[in-house]
Amino acid sequence: MRHGFTALLWAATVLALSFLVVPVAAIFLRVPPGELVSALGSSVARDALRVTLVTTLVAQVAILLVGTPAAYVIATRRFRGRTLLVTLVEMPLVLPPAVAGIGLLAAFGRFGLLGGTLSAFGLEIAFTRIAVVLAIIFVAGPFFLRTAIAAFEAVDTTLVDASRTLGAGPARTFARIALPLAAGGLGAGAALSFARGLGEFGATIMFAGSLQGVTQTLSLAVYEQFDVDFDTALAIGAELVLASAVLLLAVKLIPSWRRSPQSFPTLSARSLSS
Amino acid sequence: MATLTAELSHPLRSFALELSLEVGAETLALVGPSGAGKSTVLRALAGLLRPARGRIVLDGDVWLDRSRGVDVPPELRSVGLLFQDYALFPHMSVRANVAYGTRELRTVDELLERFAIGHLARARPGEISGGERQRVAVARALARSPRVLLLDEPLAALDAHTRATVRGELHELLAGLELPVILVTHDFEDALTLADRVGVLVDGRLRQLGTPGELVAAPADPFVARFTGANLVPGVAVAGADGLTEIILDAGGSMWSTEILTGPVALTVYPWEIALSREVPSDSAVNHVRAPIGRITALGNRARVTVGPLVAEVTAASVERLALAEGEPVVASFKATAARLVPLA
Description:
The complex is a heterodimer of chains A (274) and B (345). Chain A is mainly α and 274 residues long. Helices cover 76% and strands 0% of the residues of chain A. Chain A has two domains: 1-30; 42-273, MetI-like (MetI-like fold). Chain A starts with a helix and ends in a 15-residue tail after the last helix. Chain B has helices at 38-46, 94-99, 105-114, 130-143, 160-176, 188-194, 212-217, 222-228, 316-321, and strands at residues 4-11, 16-23, 27-31, 53-58, 61-65, 70-71, 79-82, 148-152, 181-185, 197-202, 205-210, 231-239, 245-249, 254-257, 263-269, 275-277, 287-299, 302-307, 310-315, 329-334, 340-343. In chain B, helix 3 (105-114) runs antiparallel to helix 4.
């Protein structure tokens, strides 16, 4: 009886793991590695890589520059409607990508909410590279924001108070205390949002289209190529698998790497209540 | 001469803090049960908490005046605040911690030297002991050359053994500073050894403010009497006869203790351990002080009687039976086993 149960547990584990591993392995096993590499030389693959790198990097920089101070404010201030605000931040995480795409069109498209204003300034956003960047920011930004808020919340407020009494204003306190202590969480959040941005598909195809060399990212190229040239689609897929694996490793390693050299004492925020 | 004046009014959970203080270049201890509002006072003085109403002035510089909308932020107040758990920055070396509040590299070197933490300069706070952490925190607070020093339970985070040593170090440090120092503690003995004046804070209000001697001699009410505890007599401990320690009192004369210790000490003895009689008794007590009675404070069925450097607590009935009156000579006696020693350096 007991052995039967153990066997059942192991069978389930093996089944789950192999089901998850097989499709990823298949990408690399179906075509010899040499052909995979040469398929990456095609113009579709090269254009898609270029578009992806440019748009993901620009989006990531925007997410970090705007998201970090925003997360700090949300994490350290207590105000009415804060819970609601955090929920709004998390909204794009659960939104179906197609809904995100149509929302972006309704907001920034030519006939959208802000489209008229933007057109007046000569700005057409939909179906341009800017649209790709906006789509990535919209779906990937919340991954960073949420992790960053948690990271800033974990910084002991006593340390912030100590910094202030030692003559550092709010800006210097942020730069020298809050930012370094939250750096592990911020790094993990950045890696998560980078990975999500790399795989962005639904919102992009609706809001930016799939024009080779302009808005066609690696994910879109896989979709475009799979009934044209399956090997190229596989090669691009392999590229994305490797990038994602590296980012996943980063998410796992960054926080522990940040923590290890310090071996924090338990500086509990024993609140100054007495 | 530096003077800090503060009037603070702030609602707390179940009562309101209502406090008025004037502190010169001295150490004022705020003692009281936990939750009495002691730390709130420090946070308000440092600018980390904005009281509902109040005014804080240091030497004519107005730090806070709610009625005129003045509230100087903490970084501009020139306050050194020592946090209860020290709040050292875990991601910085000891040296970077001390240097945080100053641009003067020489000051940093001097402080590292003065607090004997130079050899730890490159260590992280997580790698050093509790006593060392306390010294780093004090050095960091002083690096900014603050005009007011605030200490929040500076000894609470330490184990009993380290505590005695650090208390001695702190005693020496505070004696040399010419700043208003406010020390918060729930331990009356810490207050006795470190402070010039002691304020007893209960439920947000000062029950009594005075020198440690005054508080022990004439507690305002039974609460303060229970809280204040011991007499404190400073002296130098040396090895004496019969395996006892002889304490040569700073004020002249000697007392005896069974505790083994040498060097500068404070002899402490509880008022209720001291017996009064007309003549030197022939019992087991070895410490006798003959002096005229200074003051008699009635506390219900008890009375506190000042005799020379000591305060005895006896029953009201004994005061009547012995016909004790202020100015009359009396003998105060206590056993060497009741005399405990607190090292002062």
